[in-house]
Specification:
- The chain is mainly α.
- It is built from 14 helices and 7 strands.
- The strands form 3 sheets. A 3-stranded parallel sheet has the order 1-4-7. Strands 2-3 form a two-stranded antiparallel sheet. Strands 5-6 form a two-stranded antiparallel ribbon.
- A hairpin with a 4-residue loop joins strand 2 (57-58) and strand 3.
- The protein binds zinc ion.
- Zinc ion binds at residues 124-126, 128-129, 136-138.
Length: 284
């Protein structure tokens, strides 16, 4: 339900983006014949039984998969560990490159794949681990096997990872009354993205390598110390550090801050907290 709301928090598609999204849907053969230009950001939520070709794209005549159909929008994978490991692993490179390259004997094709990937999983096979009101009946071995279905390098590609405890209905209703309206959140998102376009001519999500380190570098000695301690304690990989810097830069942008401070970094690091083995997620 949360993931489905995400496209509504993003700015409307620009005309060139709408053209690309419409073209991809047309090439994939999923555009109704009477449809005009698609103007809504796509939200795709394929079932975990979907094949690798359906998810990534492919076929004798290469067609875009769900990842490309979600270009400029959101790809939501519910029950992430239920997808086959092989299917999930083939996501890694396209997520990094933000495009899918399909090579067949007869022809090759490249489809754009700049989607926001959102995934959800249970804490254990029965879903009750950590629930204060009900008892989880999974043994340690099955919990471990369930979590191990996701490789460390795949997990490393998620910028934000968080536990969402189950919430009693009454609390949920209260939270909805107090929550910031979607329109206000969307205005902040649009302002943050405008800042990124003005500063560097692209979104933070599209920064990589030396640009990423230069444009998202922490501004103060305090902030650099926070990062150094995290790198030492959690054995963050180079990619992991890059992702923390990018999230910190985005948090600063959302707050309208010119520089990346220790507070921004500390908040970004909360979303990368390794659970259990500190090195477990950082060897990709
Ligand atoms: Zn359980």
């Amino acid at each position: 339900m949360l993931a489905r709301r995400l496209p509504g928090l993003l700015p409307p598609l620009r005309f060139d983006e709408a053209l690309t999204v419409t073209t991809i849907h047309s090439v994939a053969g999923v555009l109704p014949s009477d449809a005009g230009l698609l103007t809504e950001r796509p939200f795709r939520a394929p079932h975990h039984t979907c094949s690798q070709i359906a998810l990534i794209g492919g076929g004798a005549i290469p067609r875009p998969g769900e990842l490309s159909l979600a270009h400029h929008g959101v790809l939501f994978l519910d029950e992430l560990p239920e997808f086959t490991r092989h299917t999930l692993e083939t996501l890694r490179q396209p997520l990094e490159l933000r495009q899918v390259h399909i090579a067949r004997a007869a022809r090759t094709a490249t489809f754009p794949a700049a989607a926001m990937l959102v995934a959800a999983m249970n804490p254990c096979p029965c879903g009750l681990a950590g629930d204060p009101h009900r008892q989880c009946r999974c043994d340690a071995g099955s919990v471990e096997r369930y979590r191990r279905r996701l490789s460390a390098p795949l997990l490393d590609r998620f910028d934000l990872r968080l536990d969402i405890p189950s919430v009693p209905w009454a609390d949920l209703e209260n939270a909805q009354l107090e929550a910031e309206p979607s329109l206000a959140v969307r205005a902040r998102v649009i302002a943050a993205r405008d800042r990124q376009w003005t500063r560097q001519g692209r979104l933070n999500a599209d920064l990589a390598g030396a640009d990423l380190r230069a444009l998202c570098a922490p501004d103060t000695l305090d902030a650099r110390a926070v990062l150094r301690r995290a790198v030492e304690r959690w054995h963050l990989s180079v990619r992991g550090v890059g992702r923390v810097l990018r999230v910190a830069r985005t948090i600063a942008d959302l707050g309208g801050s010119g520089g990346v401070t220790a507070d921004h970094l500390a908040e970004a690091l909360q979303f990368r907290r390794p659970d259990g083995d500190p090195a477990a997620y950082e060897n990709g």
